[in-house]
């Protein structure tokens, strides 16, 4: 037995020791949590959660950076159909973020409530001349999140059109380029006129044929799609249908009658017959590029851009020489990216192509390996000196590693397009 005083002191010491152990364990536990937060890799969000995030951004993207512009898209509807009119005629109806947001929201609504949808452009010159790339490149790369938001939301809209469960009719009367192709070519009906002017001119501004270009271009006959994508060659009128980009052709003077019948006495049941009645198969108009088919297929079957260039040099025809001179004006990096994207897209779904294009667009906006996109827009659309200073300057300066960096995943997972629906059955 210990003396009473010693026993009391021992009990006091014992209580202190227990308290000390308790606080040490609490400190260790908190430190472990902090350590885990610091050291453990960030876990990706489930696909469903990412998709919800994208849908929230899609509905609020315009207001997050700028207010929606009133009347840049006009909507009218009945119980049977909806009509969307792109309403920026002074800008050739070029798409901006406000328009993309409104169109997506309305198309989602109409898919559930209408039998068919018509999309057309205001004015006499253009259906839609493309995306507003001046807007997309107005900020410096390090600050240009809105540029990435614009492209990502545009591609989500392209997929909505490509998977639309009710008939989607695009009246492509006039200039139809870039983003204008994206809101027409993926739809069920694309009706061209003699005023239709098609092109995918992105390599001339340091970009690549996007809005699903990596999907639909490789599916055109032979190597026509790669030729159009690399060179930016323009197709006019009935050629747009002959190439497979439009589904129907009509003289522009007859377009009002077609529109009147579509909007007065047409339902989903007789829609196809109404469109067929008013349009022309143009059997008497041969495809202007038909005489060049074999040359296009041979030269653009090269495995690399360098091999395509060599085959064009060996051909020595006027067409080959003109094509060579044209390709020399394009961004060398854009040419290589376009070829790689075309090869990939030929075997992939629309959804996979758009996900890839989102990465490529983000790389261009970030100027990850080059500021060619900003330089091309400056030279052709801002200063209009038509003398872009490409960097890298030549094909030979561009390694596979450089191209690979443009196709790589994005730094922030929320910037990826992680979910896109496939076509409804």
From TrEMBL:
Enoyl-CoA hydratase/isomerase domain boundaries: 82-407
EC main group: hydrolase
SUPFAM superfamilies the UniProt entry points to: ClpP/crotonase
Cross-referenced CDD domains: crotonase-like
Record flagged with keyword Kinase: no
Top-level taxon of the source organism: Eukaryota
Pathway: Amino-acid degradation; L-valine degradation
One GO term describing the cellular component: mitochondrion
GO biological process: one example: L-valine catabolic process
Enzyme Commission identifier(s): 3.1.2.4
Role played: Hydrolyzes 3-hydroxyisobutyryl-CoA (HIBYL-CoA), a saline catabolite. Has high activity toward isobutyryl-CoA. Could be an isobutyryl-CoA dehydrogenase that functions in valine catabolism. Also hydrolyzes 3-hydroxypropanoyl-CoA.
Family: Belongs to the enoyl-CoA hydratase/isomerase family.
Protein name: 3-hydroxyisobutyryl-CoA hydrolase, mitochondrial
Organism: Bemisia tabaci (Sweetpotato whitefly)
């Amino acid at each position: 037995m210990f003396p009473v005083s010693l026993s009391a002191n021992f009990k006091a010491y014992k209580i202190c020791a227990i308290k000390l152990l308790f606080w040490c364990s609490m400190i260790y536990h908190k430190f472990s949590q902090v350590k885990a937060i610091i050291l453990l890799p960030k876990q990706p969000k489930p696909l469903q959660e990412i998709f919800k995030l994208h849908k929230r951004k899609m509905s609020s993207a315009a207001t997050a950076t700028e207010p929606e512009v009133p009347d840049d898209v006009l909507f009218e509807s009945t119980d049977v159909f909806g009509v969307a009119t792109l309403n920026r005629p002074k800008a050739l109806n070029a798409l901006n973020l406000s328009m993309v947001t409104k169109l997506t929201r309305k198309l989602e609504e109409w898919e559930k409530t209408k039998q068919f949808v018509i999309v057309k452009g205001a004015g006499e010159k253009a259906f839609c001349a493309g995306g507003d790339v001046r807007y997309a490149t107005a900020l410096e790369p390090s600050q240009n999140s809105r540029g990435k938001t614009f492209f990502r939301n545009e591609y989500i809209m392209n997929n909505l059109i490509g998977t639309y469960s009710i008939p989607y009719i695009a009246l492509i009367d006039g200039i139809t380029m870039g983003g204008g192709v994206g809101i027409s070519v993926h739809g069920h009906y694309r009706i061209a006129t003699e005023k239709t002017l098609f092109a995918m001119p992105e390599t001339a501004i340091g970009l690549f044929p996007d809005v699903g270009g990596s999907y639909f271009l490789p599916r055109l006959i032979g190597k026509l799609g790669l030729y159009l994508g690399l060179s930016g060659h323009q197709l006019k009128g009935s050629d747009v249908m002959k190439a497979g980009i439009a589904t129907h052709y009509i003289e522009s003077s007859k377009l009002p009658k077609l529109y009147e019948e579509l909007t007065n006495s047409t339902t989903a049941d007789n829609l196809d017959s109404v469109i067929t009645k008013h349009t022309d198969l143009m059997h008497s108009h041969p495809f202007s590029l038909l005489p060049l088919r074999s040359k296009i297929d041979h030269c653009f079957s090269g495995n690399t851009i360098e091999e395509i260039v060599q085959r064009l040099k060996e051909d020595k025809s006027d067409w080959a020489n003109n094509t060579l001179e044209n390709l020399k004006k394009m961004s060398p990096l854009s040419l290589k990216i376009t070829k790689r994207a075309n090869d990939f897209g030929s075997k992939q779904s629309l959804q996979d192509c758009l996900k890839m294009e989102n990465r490529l667009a983000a790389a261009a906006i970030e100027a990850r390996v080059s500021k060619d996109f900003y330089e091309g827009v400056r030279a052709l659309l801002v200063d209009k000196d038509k003398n872009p200073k490409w960097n890298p300057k030549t094909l030979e300066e561009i390694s596979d590693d450089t191209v690979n960096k443009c196709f790589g995943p994005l730094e922030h997972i929320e910037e990826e397009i992680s979910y896109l629906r496939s076509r409804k059955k």
